[in-house]
Predict the 3D structure of the following.
Amino acid sequence: MKKTSPSVSRPDPIATIADIERIEALPYAQFMPHTSVYDALCASAERHADRPALTFIASPDPDALPDAMCSWTYSECMTEVRRASNLFRTLAAGEEPRIAMLLPSIPQAWFTLWGGESIGVVCPINYLLGTEHIAELVRASGANILVTLGPHAELDIWSRAVDLQAQCPSLRHVLAVGAPAGTMDFDAALAAASTETPTLARDNRIDNTAALFHTGGTTGAPKLARHTHGNQLHAAAGAAAMYDASERDVILNGFPLFHVAGSIVYGLSILLAGGEVVLPTLTGLRNKRFVDHYWHFVDRLGITLLAAVPTVITTVLESPRSQDATQRVRLLLTGGSPLPAELATEAEKRLGIPLRNILGMTECAGVIAIEPSAAARAEGACGLPLPFTKVRATDAQGQPLQAGTTGILQVSGPNVSPGYTDAKRNAGTFTADGWLVTGDLGHVDAQGRVFVTGRAKDLIIRSSHNIDPGVIEDALLRHPDVLMAAAVGEPDEYAGELPIAYVVLKPGASQQPEALADFARPFIPERPAWPRRVELLDALPLTAIGKVYKPALRARASAAVVADRVQRAGLSHVQTQVLDEPAGLRVLFTTSAPEDVATTEALRQVMRGFALAYSVRDITP
């Protein structure tokens, strides 16, 4: 008799914290019966062998369909995963395969990720980083194999990868998709590899490290979070439960695999449920032509789940769509950067699709809390914690606070990483008793919902990409005339935040802000971290113990941006102030003319792209 792998239990749809507590009352093995990602994928393939698992759209031209579309069934995907596992085992020649991956979200990247995790450790790397930063991450990961994209007209990764072997002593093999002469071709090597079940190089345990995901922004000091098989499986299964995902679902996933959202939150979760993952072209949702035809593809491919950061939602709202383009879409999932309340309301109203928010971190395999599909959206909430995951707000000493009280959010559960590869960097993020300090300010209400109201950390999040402000500050402090520098995120309707810097010059020095920005750029590892502007101040705001008080700078930056948008909207009778309150920043509009419907609507339009609370005060006689 054929042995059937255990399946992930699919509970009734989750709507409240009581539903989650019912799941938690059962043995954990009923929620997650697998001990490795490979086992879980095999189980999905047994149940859904002939159903499509991955579909790749090669062209952004909808008229090119179906010729520009390639699909792999679950059975075919697992064949490629096994081939990748056996290929990496052979190349490693007795060592543990450690695979660095510099690939866009193409099918070969998925085979590399899951095949590599099955036999060793994979380190997906942001291919937009500078060459030296990539080399540091490869060295820190101890990678002995690199899989990358060869020379390609649409996306240049090869120029960053071509010299990595010389810079990274542990790197023994480089394989390229579309390899140039003299480089091993990944597709050819994969096709020649064995399709037999791979012989595991180690015990198949849930606490084995499966992957290393880099985090902490663009700092040149590598910061690699370890993901165990258990971390990834729990995050994926928890997400699938919150979405109520099934084999009937088709998700449009334009996120890169070096981002936990692309690989786990919107990837592995759907594969565990037996659904189909659609990959929108080599450059994903950065492909403007694809976004221009976004709703045509949604309609043609029968998409049921959409995944997009708030900036993409803003863009696709304006893309042309037919009346029935969204008829099969049941959820729009978002996260990665703060969700403006006005945008959420507008998206649901215009699209007729429920929008659900997600809170996650690289250090917890991408998911902490999700707004369940079966529950109504609560404005400002990030949803309920995953089953078997606990979230609490604490004071500065780490003591838990009462429900509804704002503090620093902490999380514990099977999705929480065991820490960074460099254990010295765990301090302040991972506690001795198993809690992850998120760095977010927020609270948990009496219904168990998680709210984020600000950030205790200084991180700048540009289009879901983390930027370490220290990189910008260090670059500016190299200038001989700079005494102090502080970088913060300035709110932006498209990117969520843009990096800007405030500078105090040394006594007697004179510099133009533009010249300081130009000076700093060569010392900043990647272009997205270049400060959008530099502003000179006589002094930086300080705390009582002399540290730079960045909330005041974020309030200053927010006030300048919002005031600019108010002026552009022709609202000369409205004054803008940004208040730094315990619950976060709040915009206060003061109107010197009677508040009317037109002013209210104009202010709503101004604020629709910002994740900032606001209120209006009428001071007319």
